Amino acid sequence: MHKRWDIEENAFHQLKTYYHADHCYCHEAVKVIFLLMLIAFNIREMYLYRRIRGFERSKITRKSVTRIFRDDLQAEYDKIKAYKSDLLRHK
For residues 45 and 62, what is the distance between their CA atoms, to the nearest angstrom? Predict the structure, then answer.
């Protein structure tokens, strides 16, 4: 049971420190955005601990992994945007 508490405390600490989630989110739209941030955070944590062997011992930071994810998503978005513009140009 204490392991679960440690995981939750770590999650809340990281969200407050790195994602500036210390504001009280009470409006519905902002609440939805905050919940999406929580889902993304949990997916990243699961990826780190289940797919990257020895993550805690490695020199990779959580912030650098987040940057890699962001850059990969941006690259995919740019490819899709270029593909759509090529399709429109050839019509």
Answer: 9
Q: Say how far apart CA 14 and CA 80 lie, in whole Å.
A: 32
pTM of the complete model: 0.44
The terminus-to-terminus CA distance of the chain in angstroms comes to: 61
Q: DSSP strand E in 1-91: where?
A: none
Please state, in angstroms and rounded to a whole number, the distance separating the CA atoms of residues 91 and 86. Answer: 9
**How confident is the model over 7-36, as pLDDT tens digits?**
667 777 777 777 766 665 556 767 777 888
Q: What token pair was written down for 34?
A: 């905050």
Q: Which residues contact 47 (CB under 8 A, 6 or more apart)?
A: 65
Query: In this structure, are residues 50 and 56 in contact, taking their beta carbons and an 8 Å threshold?
Result: no
Tokens (6 digits) for 70: 């962001």
- Residue 52 DSSP symbol: S
